[in-house]
Design a protein that fits this description.
241 residues; 49% helix; 9 helices; 8 strands; 8-stranded mixed beta sheet; alpha+beta
C-alpha cells in the first residue's frame, strides 16, 4: 500500500493549488458575519449526504444555543447524514463538550482526536467547504469555498488527519495533552514533585492531573494494585499517545 502523504506535504499542495488559481475566477466567498456563516452552513446541511469537520475547540455557545445545535445535528444524523468530526484533545477537558461528543458519536457522528493544532473546517459532500479565515478560537467569519480543486485539497487534508487521529471511544485515548505529558514523566520514574518542576506547574496541579488520568484510564483505587504502575503499563503498551 502506498505510504500516506505527510500533513506538511498536503499543506504545501494546498498552497500550490492556490498559486495555480491566481488570476483565474475562483469561487470563494468571504463571509464576515458569524450569523451569516451559520445560515449558510444550515442551508448546506439541509441537502448534504456527508459532512467532514475539524473542530479545534468546542463551540462558544450558551447552554441554550448548544442544545439547539446538538438537536440539529442529531436530527440530521437521524435522517441519514454521514458525519465525521476531528476534535482537538483539549476539548476533552470540558465535561459539557465531552457529553456532546459522546451523544453525537453514539448517534453516528464519528469522532477522532488529535493533539496537533487544527483549523476549524466543515466540508459538505464535495460541494462546499467553510474554512475559518482567522486562526483564533471563536473568531467570526469564514471562507465559503466552492472551487473544486481547493475542496479536493481540503478533503485530502482532512482524510490524512483522520488517519493519524486516535479513536475518541477508547478510555486510554481520552487524556488531555497535559495528562499525557504527566503520564510520560511518571513512566520515566519521576515523582509528583519532579513532574511539577519539569512542567513548571504546582505539585497540587500534578496531583489533579494524575487523579484525572486514573479516572479516564478506568484504574480504580484498590489495596492490591499500584495505580501509577498500571497507568505506566498502559502507556508502555502504546495505548496512550
Amino acid at each position: 500500500m502506498e505510504e500516506s502523504m505527510p500533513l506538511g506535504q498536503l499543506a504545501r499542495r494546498l498552497e500550490e493549488v492556490v498559486s495555480e488559481l491566481r488570476g483565474l475566477p475562483v469561487d470563494v466567498e468571504r463571509l464576515e458575519d458569524g450569523e451569516l456563516v451559520r445560515q449558510r452552513i444550515l442551508e448546506a446541511a439541509a441537502t448534504a449526504r456527508e459532512v467532514r469537520a475539524m473542530q479545534p475547540v468546542g463551540p462558544a455557545e450558551t447552554e441554550r444555543h448548544e442544545g439547539i445545535s446538538r438537536r440539529e445535528n442529531l436530527d440530521a444524523l437521524a435522517r441519514g447524514l454521514r458525519m465525521r468530526t476531528i476534535v482537538h484533545a483539549d476539548v476533552l477537558d470540558e465535561p459539557r463538550k465531552v457529553s456532546r461528543i459522546r451523544q453525537l458519536h453514539a448517534a453516528g457522528d464519528l469522532h477522532r482526536v488529535v493533539d496537533q493544532p487544527i483549523q476549524q473546517l466543515i466540508i459538505f459532500d464535495r460541494a462546499v467547504a467553510f474554512l475559518q479565515f482567522t486562526p483564533v478560537a471563536y473568531s467570526p467569519g469564514a471562507l465559503a469555498i466552492r472551487q473544486q480543486s481547493l475542496i479536493t485539497a481540503l478533503i485530502d487534508l482532512f482524510e490524512q488527519t483522520w488517519e493519524r487521529a486516535r479513536e475518541v471511544t477508547e478510555p486510554t485515548r481520552q487524556l488531555s495533552s497535559r495528562e499525557r505529558e504527566v503520564l510520560a514523566l511518571i513512566a520515566e520514574g519521576r515523582s509528583n514533585s519532579a513532574v511539577a518542576r519539569a512542567l513548571s506547574i504546582t505539585e497540587a496541579a500534578v496531583g489533579k492531573h494524575v487523579a484525572g488520568l486514573f479516572t479516564k484510564l478506568e484504574i480504580p483505587a484498590t489495596a492490591d494494585d499500584n495505580r501509577r504502575v498500571l497507568a505506566v503499563l498502559a502507556y508502555l503498551r502504546g495505548a496512550v499517545r
